[in-house]
Amino acid sequence: xxxxxxxxxxxxxxxxxxxxxxxxxxxxxxxxxxxxxxxxxxxxxxxxxxxxxxxxxxxxxxxxxxxxxxxxxxxxxxxxxxxxxxxx
Length: 88
Description:
By secondary structure, the chain is an alpha+beta fold. It has three helices and four strands, in the order βαββαβα. The longest helix has 13 residues, at about 50-60.
């Protein structure tokens, strides 16, 4: 399945590189495509669990997903359950 995640504050090439590395290293996620001008990350997901894992990783690394509620079958309380970390 294809998922398009709308991120906030994705404004630099450095953030895009970090984001691509994070997405590519997430189990069950492939073909990350980043559009800085629209602040989106598009990925292919093998399952909803893979998408949930990517979402959790994004939150832990300080990325905010604006369209979280429109993503398929994710736990609506997940943002509150995950604490950001500093390292990427």
